[in-house]
Amino acid sequence: MENKKVYLITGGSSGIGLAIAEALTANNSQVISISRSEEKINRALNEKPQLKGKVDFIPGDVSNEESITQLRNYIEKKYEVIHGLINSAGVISVGNLQTLNSDDWQKMLDVNLTGPFLMTKTLLPLLKKANGASVINISSIAGLRPGTSIGYSVSKAGLDMLTRFLVADLGPYNIRVNSINPGLVKTHLHFDNDLISNQQDYDKMVEGARVRHPLKKVGEPQDIANMVKFLVSDEASWISGAIVPVAGGVTEENSFLMPKEDAILK
């Protein structure tokens, strides 16, 4: 892999993760994706056939330490090093303290927070080899302000704190750590997590979110991929510990003027 950067993306077979994978392959980089769903891997290859052979799609579970260890051994043998780790895998179940069940709460913590912790910890030896690696956590504006899911908001707020903690922890190894916090981005997320069952309801939800964003538009996966490309680049070599909303200004909206009833953020 001489002169070729190696990037590992969790959840790289759909939505934001897939857009990131496509963006990084455009830089002649080797991209590895880990995803629990063979179905999503097949869907990704159908949607983006140009990525066949450019992205190494691997089935695995980011919340399972044994699965991640197997992934590390595979990468070490085949690629030797990781220049960038993008923790993009995420799940969401809507609910507050009274309506969210404990299983869904735990699942969100396992995937959204424990997953990035285990991935970074287990793959650290390969990140150190890069002598200038980057870890990027795909968080959410729901981690900066309460959203429609107590579990999702808490897991993403925890992810932002993990980012901040790792800045000093990994800085001595010249590893930078940053968070990107999207607003609503049009992906399969809401369908895949059974939050929306039909296109009409999805379009209504997107329109409701659009008017709450000061720029009057919601995000596309490429918007997040563009920020990832910058943060892993040499142009961002002195940026670590940033919590970056990429959300059309929605973090600054006036809550007295904006309706909230049908918001599902990310």
From TrEMBL:
Short name of one Pfam family: adh_short_C2
PANTHER family hit by this protein: 3-OXOACYL-(ACYL-CARRIER-PROTEIN) REDUCTASE, 3-OXOACYL-[ACYL-CARRIER-PROTEIN] REDUCTASE FABG
Family statement drawn from the similarity comment of this UniProt entry: Belongs to the short-chain dehydrogenases/reductases (SDR) family.
Protein name listed in UniProt: Ketoreductase domain-containing protein
Domain Ketoreductase positions: 5-183
InterPro entries: KR_dom, NAD(P)-bd_dom_sf, SDR, SDR_fam
